[in-house]
Structure prediction request, 100 residues.
Amino acid sequence: MFERKCCVKPNQEESFCFSPRFLPFVIDFETQYEIEDYTKVDTIIHQMRLTVAEEETLNYYMAGLGFVAIAQMQNVNNTTVWRRRKSIQKKYLRYVVMQD
Prediction:
């Protein structure tokens, strides 16, 4: 079933490695991790009519950065980032209410 190869290193005990060409299955990473489609999210963001600064702040925020890191990246005050995030939230809530 598996071909075992001996992997012996100096001053270490013997261990075995499995040769990947003799595995009974093939791992296909493209089907395992589907490519996510963000067209719906992009459409919502476009319909919210964000300013360039708000969109940049949203992108950084969605990438997982915090207020301080975003402020440093945009060279603005922490309060400015907080205000932009609040404005994005208001625009999103307005968008949700308009869709209902």
Notes: The first strand starts at residue 4 and ends at 7. Residues 47 and 95 are 8 Å apart (CA to CA). The helical segments are 29-32, 39-47, 52-62, 67-74, 78-99. Strands lie at 4-7, 15-18.
